[in-house]
Amino acid sequence: MDPRALGEFGLIEAIRRRAARDTRGSSPWRVAIGDDAAVLTPRAGEELVLTTDALVEDVHFRWRSSDPRRVGHKALAVNLSDVSAMGARPVGCLLTLALPSGLAATRLEGFLSGFLSLARASRCPLVGGDVVRARQFSATVTAIGAVARGRALLRSAARPGERVFVTGTLGGAAAGLARLERGRLRTPLDRRLARRQQAPEPRLAAGAALVEARLSRAAIDISDGLAQDLGHLCEESGVGARIALETVPVMRGATLAQALTGGEDYELLFTAKKSAPSAAVLGQRLGCRVSEIGVITARPGLVITRSGRPVQMSTKGFQHFKASPKGSEK
Amino acid sequence: MDPRALGEFGLIEAIRRRAARDTRGSSPWRVAIGDDAAVLTPRAGEELVLTTDALVEDVHFRWRSSDPRRVGHKALAVNLSDVSAMGARPVGCLLTLALPSGLAATRLEGFLSGFLSLARASRCPLVGGDVVRARQFSATVTAIGAVARGRALLRSAARPGERVFVTGTLGGAAAGLARLERGRLRTPLDRRLARRQQAPEPRLAAGAALVEARLSRAAIDISDGLAQDLGHLCEESGVGARIALETVPVMRGATLAQALTGGEDYELLFTAKKSAPSAAVLGQRLGCRVSEIGVITARPGLVITRSGRPVQMSTKGFQHFKASPKGSEK
After folding, report:
1. Which of A188, B152, B188, B190 ranks highest by number of CB atoms within 10 Å?
2. Residue contact A96–B128, C-beta within 8 A
């Protein structure tokens, strides 16, 4: 798949052929790739969620240390994570590719393989897009999801007294990035951590399961780090939170600091009523590990405790992270 | 609005504040900027159309010859043109900004002013997006529209015997680009042509009017040039077309060749039944000039006539254009 040989329309036609079989049958897409726009028939009683996220060469990833299929996978995965954090199921996606003239055909081919195979696995067909020339490769994805009317999980819906939960384990992506940057991928654990950074598996089913079982009203995906994303949620809800350090699920091979501030883990953080089931029971319902890490407070701000006592964490680190553009630390 | 001073979240917050007032009141957006995704409540009986198009620095425009407000206007306009070509009304948009670290604050400010002012004027509020670092500025927009169920204007719906119409006049954008590249903007006409290239006015109302009055089933917007876009429509419909050169509406200051192959005019091309009203009556209904330029044929291929006789146009030029990636000629 050489973009120079194919030209814009040839490339679009090649992508269209590969994506076409995903919108056959019971698809809600009346029109997919091939018109001025895609046409979606919404289901009665459902709302749509829309999110967009871009992956840029040398900012979010480096070709020389990345399998192109993982780059394609991640470009879609980070968007699916946002869809899931709204409690929605994926419905489809659009992809804009910015292609440098010297891009190797194998990289584009690998990228599309990884992208389309996650699209297929997550029932999120590619229904449109754009192809433009640029000096730097980037992939900008818009993902569309559907959720029962009025039931989307919102950042603004957390209430004082609610318990705070996270799925999976944290810090793995940051630990993987550190190993990748040091060029140190010797053990199976090293490679597992690198995969966590390069090919995250979004919690596709967990968000929708929370909505279906009416277990939660508020969620966010952890893309910027637990502390920061919990901060976003609290800010939008006008509340605060208290987190017990010893309950934060740190991935093997990662540090507690990486779990708190590392980012890119793409786990879900959600709140649930006081009367909600235990983390173990929630984990069974969601089909993944769930940890209870704290509680929402009426008083704004994030309090981190160890053995029940507030501890001072490196707020400087937090501020630096907060002020720096996304991806600058990568 | 200095991205370096504000950081990612500061910049997003600043954009959010400016866009917020556009989603108040009767907006179908339950949630706009500020969550993991925007939430849209579709109207009963309507389908949604989704399209995406990117504008890249030094590929689609040059800062030094562009008013940043026009760049912002155009980034949204080219997407609204696609929405209108589906017969839909705009509902909202998402914007991904790729920002070089050295980007002047006044350029970003101007870009956003132009973008948001067209968003407001066209009732297409900005409801989400992403901000990433890059070496080259680009703006990737996803626009969402709504149209009555089953009534979207499709490229694939043209039928033999239908008459072919275009809105407005053609060739102006190409003529404007030629003048911009020669640095020749002396007369009011020169400036008008340049504006046509840099700040196109999409036919916002025309597509929806065609659907409402059930005047058409098939349309496409003219972004790649009349000949090429008519070719796309014919290909998707499995038909051909015969066009009378003397009926093609050429903008003052442009050549016939520019009108046929120039691109970026963002007028609508549509077909209508044999029994449809005259171009003059259609023009009244759509609120703009409408010209009848030919007819759809059962036999595939584009036949161009002058005084009723087929003429050979530079097919070589057409092929070159067809094979070259979008924007490469700019």
Report:
1. B152
2. no
Average pLDDT score over residue span B151-155 = 96
Residue A301 scores a pLDDT above 80: yes
As separate numbers, helices (DSSP H) first and strands (DSSP E) second, chain B gives 10, 13
Arithmetic mean of pLDDT, A149-154: 96
For B115-134, what is the mean pLDDT? 94
Q: Does B83 touch chain A (CB under 8 A)?
A: yes
Q: How far apart are CA A38 and CA B78, in angstroms?
A: 15
* Predicted TM-score of the model (pTM): 0.91
Structural domains of chain B ordered from first start: 3-148 (3.30.1330.10), 155-322 (3.90.650.10)
Say what the pLDDT of residue A267 is: 96
- Name which of A36, A53, A156 to mutate to probe chain B: the one with the most chain B Cβ atoms within 10 A of its Cβ: A36
Count of Cβ atoms closer than 10 Å to residue B285 Cβ: 15
B127 touching A (Cβ < 8 Å): yes
Beta bridge partners of A46: A148
Q: How far is CA B42 from the centre of its chain?
A: 24
The b/e string for A287-313 (b: 16+ C-beta within 10 A; e otherwise) is: ebebbbbbbbbeeeebebeeeeeeeeb
For an interface test with A, which of B1, B30, B31, B36 has the most A Cβ atoms less than 10 Å from its Cβ? B36
Q: Is A134's CB within 8 Å of B59's CB?
A: yes
DSSP state of B199: S
